[in-house]
Structure formats: structure tokens, C-alpha cells
Amino acid sequence: NRGPGRMPLDWTTRLKLALDSAKGLSFVHRGCNSKLFHGNLTASNILIDRAGNACLSDLSISQFVTFSSTTMNYSSANYRAPEQVQGGKRPSQRTDVYSFGIILLEILTGKSPSEGNFSLPKWVQSVVKEEWTSEVFDLELLRYKDMEGEMVALLQIALQCLSELPHQRPKMSQVVKMILDIRGTNDEEATCSSLQNDNSSDSSRSISGETGTTTTATY
């Protein structure tokens, strides 16, 4: 949504991508007796297929090897939770939730966490709620006046994910439900499908890029 030749995303598309990504991360967290985490969640690791569905990629192997903060690249550093930055804690499901909160801010603000010399979460948190529409939301979204309530609701979810205290962050299954509740979506059918996938040995999804190559997004 940024740079030359960009194609601004409308609000409905952004909300769908947020929901798809939340479902993917929730799926990861339910794997291996609920012990799996992504560990490297960034906007660049969320791929969009030709049907407009968001898929997670680049699942970190840090959960299977000895963790070292020096292996974290600069891009990932902008998505790290406070306990990782200040205390050198290992990635976890709780840090995934924090990273997802950053991604929601990107969707809502159109800004990158690596943009400029400021903290995207702290900047958003410093703006009073009454000024969110004029100060925080991407200018491209201001045309959707009738959707402001949904934007505010998604921002409130993002702020919950960005809690300084890990135990105060919601689980991704709760985040999925909160996003669905924004439009009062009945997702019973999708939930049943997701549970069936949980019991399936095939937990990966392939997407074809513009180059014709295939990338496997592990859910």
C-alpha cells in the first residue's frame, strides 16, 4: 500500500486480510498441543494469493533450536515485544500476539514500524481516542466514513495485542472472535472447517506468485 505504483487497499479488503492473518496465526498456535508459535511475524511474511487471501509464511525455526537475539534481523526487530527488547526473552505465542498488533497498526495507519525514528505503537497510544480518525487512520481510509466504527474497533483490538504485560494480551483465538464480531460475522462454518484442518496431516497451503513460482505458507 506504499511506494510508486501502489494500489491502495479499501477498508473491506484490509479487514479481510486482518481476519485471514489472525486465523492463520491462531491455527499455528493450536498446533503441537498448543506449543507452537510463529516467531518471525512481520508484514512481509504475510503473503496474498490471487484470490485475495492472506497466508502466513516463514515460520521461525527458533522454537526448535537454541535462541539467540543476534539472529533477529532488523525488519523483525521492529515487531518484537517489550520483553524481547528489554529482557531478551525467547519468542512465544504472547510475542506473536504483540507482533500481530503491530501488523494491525500497519493496516490501519498505512505506516511501517520501521518508518522514521519513532515507535509506531507509542505514537498511536499517545493520540487520544477522539483524534484517532483524523490523526491515526490512513488518509486512504477517510473516504469510508460509515466504516469508522469498524476501524476504531480494530484499533482497540490492536491496542489489546500491544499490552506491555504479556499475560494481558489476548489469545489469537480470542482475537479472531473479536475481529469477526466487528461485523457480527457468523463464522460457524469456517470454524468447523478449521477444526477439520487441525486433524488433517496436510497443514500447509500453496500460493502462486506473479512469477509463477509456488510458495508454501505453513499454517
UniProtKB/TrEMBL annotation:
The membrane spanning regions, by residue number, are none
Region annotation (Disordered) maps to 190-219
* Listed name of the protein: Protein kinase domain-containing protein
Q: Where is the signal peptide?
A: none
Q: Which InterPro entries match?
A: Kinase-like_dom_sf, Prot_kinase_dom, Ser-Thr/Tyr_kinase_cat_dom, Ser/Thr_kinase-like
Q: Which GO terms describe its molecular function?
A: ATP binding; protein kinase activity
Q: Which residues form a coiled coil?
A: none
Composition-biased stretches (Low complexity): 193-219
